[in-house]
Amino acid sequence: MRRSRFAVFSMAALTALALSTGVLAQDTVTITLMGHGSSTAEDDALNASVLAFEEANPGIDVDVQLVPDFDTVLQTAFASGDYPEVFYTGQSLFRQYVDAGVIANGSGYIESPEGFYPALAAVYSIDGELYCPPKDFSNLALEYNTDYFDAAGLEYPNADWTWDDLRAAAEALAASGTLPEGTVPFGLNPDIDRWFAFYVQAGGTFYDEEGNFVFGEDANHDAAVSALDFTAMLTQDGLAASSSDLSAGWPGEAFGQGKAAMTMEGNWIISYLNDTFPDVNWGTTELPAGPGGEGTLTFSEAYCVGADNEHPEESWALVNFLTNEAGAERVAAEGFGPMPSREASGASWIEAVGPVGEAFVAGGAYAVAPVTPAGFGEFRDALGNGVGAAFRGEEDSVDVIDEAVEVSQELKAE
Amino acid sequence: MSAVTLEQPVGQTSSASKFIRRAPGILGLLFLAIVAVVEIVPFVFTVVNSAKCLPAINAAPWAFIPSSGFIDCRNEEGRPLPASAMTSGATFQPSLEGYQMVIARDLPRWFMNSVIFAAAVTICRILIDSLAGYSLARLKFPGNRLIFFIILGTLMIPGVVLIVPRFILLKQLGILNTYQGLIIPLAADAFGIFLMKQFFESIPRELEEAAEVDGASRLTTFFRIILPISTPALTALTIFSIQGMWNNFMDALIIVGTNPSLWTLTLGLSSLQGAGGETLIWNLFLAGAVITTIPMAIVFFAFQRYFVEGVSYSGLAGQ
Prior knowledge:
CATH architecture of the domain at 114-314 in chain B: Orthogonal Bundle
Number of helices of chain B: 16
Largest interface: A-B, 44 and 41 residues
Mean pLDDT of chain B: 87
CATH superfamily of the domain at 114-314 in chain B: MetI-like
Strand content of chain A: 5-15%
Shape of chain B: globular
Radius of gyration of chain B: 27 Å
Number of domains of chain A: 2
Structural class of chain A: alpha/beta
Strand order of the largest sheet of chain A: 2-1-3-12-6-13
CATH topology of the largest domain in chain A: D-Maltodextrin-Binding Protein, domain 2
Helix content of chain A: 40-55%
Distance between the termini of chain B: 51 Å
CATH architecture of the largest domain in chain A: 3-Layer(aba) Sandwich
CATH superfamily of the largest domain in chain A: Periplasmic binding protein-like II
Number of strands of chain B: 3
Shape of chain A: globular
Low-confidence stretches of chain B: 1-11
Structural class of chain B: mainly alpha
Order of helices and strands of chain B: HHHEEEHHHHHHHHHHHHH
Radius of gyration of chain A: 25 Å
CATH class of the largest domain in chain A: Alpha Beta
Oligomer: heterodimer
Largest sheet of chain B: 3 strands, mixed
Strand content of chain B: under 5%
């Protein structure tokens, strides 16, 4: 008797628990937008945009969820089969998510896709079909300390620079004797997400027309070797040094602390230098061109719509609202670090952040995303270690590239 | 005979042999001092840098002597002051900017959630783990040993494996993003049950028999006789539970991560990493870290003796 009463009690408790959070019938549709938090100003701007969308679409409620450790939360939701209608996707995870079948194909739904930077659209396209409209992006540019260039009596770097000009300026800075003790002309890490820019400038490509990863293969071999030779010589001749050699956390910090006269970082360095090193005088220009022409790297995110989705219409309406021409203009006008993904809004963004923004926007015309295929961690490690060894003069450029290509081919064969 | 041989070196004491006899002790102290420095220095710099302006942290992270008086990090136009205005050598001008920012970012709420979470889980665990441990230690029922081994077996399953199934189950129950969703799955744990069972088995049966003779029921015996003499085990359980829940990140992330009003300190702290967009606002982040650490430091100093007892009692250095 006592036992059955307990059973009844526990059943009742469980039922009450389940009912306590039961969903009431609603006329409006609720869709979830999940992403990671950004700066307070950026989060506020996103919430304001979403509010404007809800006002324009009375039938749709948007639940904005900005979560810590976003990738883990999103991947848990994927694994459970019940995931948000709209979510951020970074460029390195895009293909993995498409392969997992969680991203809906946006071709036919995305408003005026031709307005996005072609390089950005390419990152989120498969077989020419755009899956996710890019949200915003950052490019690498060359930052220089104007005081150091003035002291050495040198012209500031400009967009017409080539590798030879970079090297000549670095030599002139070093020879001028005007740099403070321990300051190098160029802050450069053996990090493949920086070094790939030189590879692209040397004419190297990442994918062929069939979408195969072709780093360092055939015609790309010479490009890879010349890029590594050029950067390794800068380091070995004492013209460039890594942030750890300069006792800094990253090259941007070394630059801010005055330990490097030039460095190459992305949009994120603007607010960093303004907030952290307000007394440093600096300018930006496009990265120098190499034997293969101009080249820079781009880092971006997109809004993707979930494939398993009860409200695709409403989801695309939201995504289009955030990324169409008006949406891009709203992003631009706020002047956050990352740039709007549409070419037409570049000018408004420069107006908001000031002239240092020009070089970043200009790079959008020819930027390439350094995306390696899913499961290529081993390749990235092998190349990263090799680039480090070549910078230190411990390994020959040709050997480093050959080894990395070998790893890449083994991974492709799997 | 042997005693005489041992005495002999002492008789001919030279300063060198004195040193050799003391060397192990001195080396041990030296080693401990190095370990203490390695452990304490990062904590000191967390506290010190949390009270600096952002430019000062980057320009002089090692400056550790505060000069008197707090300063504002920005001038009247809202531009940050240069580092040269706030550090010189090992001294720096302290600022409360990091603490003001972290409090503005909902830290009091995260703090309250952490307290609720840690306290509720700990109370549940004390009750459920001790009742379960007592049942397994003393009550004879079919499957007693089997149940015990199943409970013990769950200790062998790595926590990450359970994340997705737990997420799905809580979603089905409709208690994701609620306090109960965060508390119920953690309200009992295998380690605690095991700890309590082992302890109860060490209590002489005669105590309970005496109570039974006096007409006490099982529950009365348990609450009136057994629990009051179980403080060593209960203290160990409490400490491990509070410590574990205060620092819990993964469960909280999966269960309440999408609802900022239920974030605990660990989730809030993690969200601060992105608070500056692409710039890490060190003073904000470190101020959050200091406020997160202080309660645990207080618990530790208040219960230091029990901590050591708890560890030696359970034979485990935390769970």
